[in-house]
Write a structure and sequence with these properties.
It is a single chain. The chain has about 110 residues and is of the alpha+beta class. The protein contains 4 helices and 7 strands. The chain has helices at about 35-45, 55-65, 85-90, 95-100; strands at about 1-5, 15, 20, 25-30, 50-55, 70-75, 90-95. Strands 3-4-6-7 form a 4-stranded mixed β-sheet. Strands 2-1-5 form a 3-stranded antiparallel β-sheet. The two termini are about 15 Å apart.
Length: about 110
């Protein structure tokens, strides 16, 4: 599974995005719940935000559906304020990330 920071709402989840400047933003996605929890703790977002576990197919579905406006994924970002410096180095475009999510684990390069 993957982990994102989401706002508690009915219906489709609101997923946290971080600003990249130039009116662009990215969706932080974490490989481990502990990384997501650390990011959330340092972000001071408020009690309505929480870490949400998403399986690969579910996250791909969100990125191809209600969150199709997400252009960039930021895998395992460091907690704020360190995130901005390394963000541009680790960005993955949405299409490549969705392909990664939908590729069977046995075919992924480790």
């Amino acid at each position: 599974p993957q982990y994102v920071v989401a706002r508690r709402e009915k219906g489709d989840p609101e997923l946290l995005r971080v600003s990249l400047g130039n009116e662009k933003n990215a969706l932080p996605v974490f490989s481990f719940e502990e990384l997501a929890q650390g990011f959330l703790r340092t972000s001071d977002l408020g009690p309505e935000w929480h870490v949400r576990e998403l399986y690969n197919g579910e996250l791909a579905s969100l990125l191809l559906g209600v969150h199709k406006d997400v252009e960039w994924i930021l895998p395992n970002p460091l907690p704020v304020p360190f995130a901005a410096a390394e963000a541009l180095l680790n960005l993955v475009d949405r299409g490549s990330f969705v392909r990664f999510l939908l590729t069977p684990r046995s075919l992924q390069i480790s």
